[in-house]
From TrEMBL:
Swiss-Prot/TrEMBL keywords: Ribonucleoprotein, Ribosomal protein
SUPFAM superfamilies membership: Prokaryotic ribosomal protein L17
Family: Belongs to the bacterial ribosomal protein bL17 family.
Domain of life: Bacteria
PROSITE patterns assigned to the protein according to its UniProt record, in alphabetical order: RIBOSOMAL_L17
NCBIfam families (UniProt xref): L17
Protein's recorded name: Large ribosomal subunit protein bL17
GO BP field: translation
Skewed-composition ranges (Basic and acidic residues): 185-200
């Protein structure tokens, strides 16, 4: 039974565990991603994230607190130089664990990659591209006709004839008339009317 067992000792003594997590934290800070087992990555996440939070405030006290855990000047310089600037606006959750499909050959342990979230350039670029595409996306248009279509027809008829048309009125469009078959009000064709006028 695991009553009250809140810490994974990873099969090591306390001193060995602290030394291992310190080395892994330094490697993560310097290289931005490391490959390890899932159990170690989860332990490392709890170990390194408070240090990343301390690095946001660049004071002598916070530098000494982090150095007491890491014992590595190069990783301290990288942490308080490059990393603290990138994670300044992030309110926690600085690391990401990506599980790998293959397991370790010797003991079949689950493997994973633990990385700093703000330094995965490919993922950041894809998210940026997705957000740009969403911002410049197409607008949704309604497929319904109805009143708007009738109003558009009335407007176009007004532009052609120059007369005001009621918005709900149905506009009739006549086909182009042939001069030979076009009839007048009294039933005569246009040519017959012209002949009568010439004879008179």
């Amino acid at each position: 039974m695991r009553h009250g067992r809140k810490i994974n000792h990873l099969g090591r003594t306390t001193a060995h565990r602290h030394a291992m997590l310190s080395n892994m934290a330094s490697s993560l800070i310097l290289h931005k991603r490391i490959t390890t087992t899932v159990a170690k990555a989860k332990a490392l996440r709890k170990y390194v994230e408070p240090m990343l939070t301390k690095s946001k405030e660049d004071t002598t006290h916070s530098r000494r607190m982090v150095f007491a855990a890491l014992q590595d000047k190069e990783s301290i310089k990288e942490l308080f130089g490059n990393i603290s600037g990138k994670i300044a606006n992030r309110p926690g959750g600085y690391t990401r664990i990506l599980k790998l499909s293959d397991t370790r050959l010797g003991d079949n342990a689950e493997m994973c990659i633990i990385e700093l979230v703000d330094f995965n350039e490919t993922l950041i670029e894809s998210k940026q591209a997705a957000s740009d595409k969403a911002a410049a996306g197409t607008t949704r248009r309604s497929r319904r006709g109805g009143k708007k279509a009738a109003g558009d027809a009335a407007t176009s008829a007004t532009e052609v004839t120059g007369e005001a048309v009621a918005p709900n009125a149905v506009v009739e469009q006549s086909a182009p008339a042939d001069t030979a078959t076009e009839t007048l009000h009294n039933g005569e064709s246009r040519e017959e009317a012209k002949a009568d006028e010439a004879g008179a």
